[in-house]
Amino acid sequence: MATGWAKDGAVQDQIDDTIADAVKRARAHIPAPGPDAPTNCIVCGEPIPERRRQALPGIRTCIPCQSARDASPAHSPYNRRGSKDSQLK
To answer: What is the domain partition of the chain in residue ranges?
Structure first.
């Protein structure tokens, strides 16, 4: 299919890049276990229960703060859609 100046497979490349970015962002939010894991929430400062720290090594937030973070939508900062309409939104 002729697409003008775009090379063949450009749309699939955009889709792949968007997915790769989302995976990188998700992996960056996975807590890493270690001896320097905080005992207090990094957001509100409340103590993180010992059982939560044992279940999720490296956790950095308490349950209410983590719930608030999970409730907020995460969007890619890149707009890889090709149409002008999508860039106006």
So the answer is: 32-70
